[in-house]
Design brief:
mainly alpha
Length: 128
């Protein structure tokens, strides 16, 4: 029974990882007002923490939060604050998170979302 649970957990993790990457790639393209970008940045932090803790449920919750922060489908009205692309800091955090999620899906990387990371090593290198 433990083996089935392990496979299910791995499948759940991979599904959440794929969805997180897809949503993050969309988020980078958004045009939002500055206060909304601060909320996005906070939510990206929640997603980073969920990944580091290998908490699939927290990842799904953060993904849902990000999706809700997206641009409204209503045209801009006169007097609305201008929308802007993602600030550089947000873009960098998103790109780093996408990179870590991709590495986790690479079986040769040995990096899994269990909080144990090979920090300080260059991307693209692997031990033995």
């Amino acid at each position: 029974m433990g083996t089935d649970s392990t496979r299910l957990d791995a499948a759940d993790w991979q599904e959440a990882s794929v969805e997180a990457r897809a949503v993050l790639l969309i988020v980078i393209e958004w045009q939002l007002v500055a206060p909304r970008w601060r909320l996005v940045q906070d939510t990206v932090g929640v997603l980073e923490a969920a990944r580091a803790a290998a908490d699939v449920e927290a990842m799904w919750n953060a993904i849902a939060q990000l999706e809700q922060l997206g641009p409204l489908r209503v045209s801009t009205r006169l007097g609305d604050k201008p929308k802007e692309p993602a600030p550089e800091e947000v873009r960098e955090r998103i790109n780093e998170l996408i990179d870590s999620l991709v590495r986790e899906d690479d079986p040769a990387s040995g990096d899994r979302g269990d909080g144990e990371q090979d920090s300080g090593q260059a991307h693209g290198t692997s031990a033995d």
